[in-house]
Amino acid sequence: MFGATAPGGSTLGATFSAVIGLFAMPSRVQSHRQQKAGDFRHLVLEELDMPGTITGVAALVLINLAWNQAPIAGWSQPYVYVTLILGFLILAVFFAIEIRYATHPLIPFDTLSSDMSFTLGAIACGWGCFGIWIFYSWQLLLVLRAESPLLAASLVSTVVNYGASIALGFAGTVEVNVNNCGLTEADVLKGYGEVLYVVIGLVWFGVVICVAFLVNTKTQRKKSVMDQDKPEA
Question: Residue 22: which residues within 8 A CB-CB, separation 6 or more?
């Protein structure tokens, strides 16, 4: 349930955006869609890449299910490793479809540069870190500090939502001051690029906070040990 909240909300938001977009599309785009709507096979199998969609989603769900079930049931359970193996096999089928057969692939590998691959990998790692952090922050409050679920939800939600909101404010401020009002695509791209430097800065700021926390913790422990070893007067 926890792992499904972020992608579920993202998918739901994208769905509503797509529905609203149907009524806001230019007439030229609508006429193009109407011409293709008559050819169901072309629409479903080629434009929507339904084989790739089915295999890709199935593979990701099975791999995710196996890896999250393993800490609970153990890797020795047959259904856990069988599910994982099936997930990777279907994932191989997905890549075969996308690379060799799909005319409108979900992942355009031919245009996927090395820079984009590194960027997507970094984004995946970042979201993975975020998921681990928020889940175990919740566990810390509930299990070790015995806080009520309502208070824990309030603390975690406040930090996460406010942090995301103020960070977007920082990013937006940088963007509007460097993109020349977004008059051209190059200006828009420049604004987006400069925003990524804000991300890098926030990442390093987070690293500094973590290092400061470790130094402070080590200092406090050392001081506590010295106080315990100090002979009583």
Answer: none
The b/e string for 164-202 (b: 16+ C-beta within 10 A; e otherwise) is eeeeeeebeebbeeebeeeeeeeeeebbeeebeebeeee
Q: In whole angstroms, what is the distance from residue 125 CA to residue 135 CA?
A: 15
Longest dimension (CA), the chain: 93
pLDDT category of residue 29 using cuts at 50, 70 and 90: very low
Q: ∠ CA 212-208-170 to the nearest 5 degrees?
A: 130
| CB 106, CB 56: distance < 8 Å | yes
Q: What value does the mean pLDDT take over residues 106-114? A: 75
CA 137/CA 130 separation, integer angstroms: 10
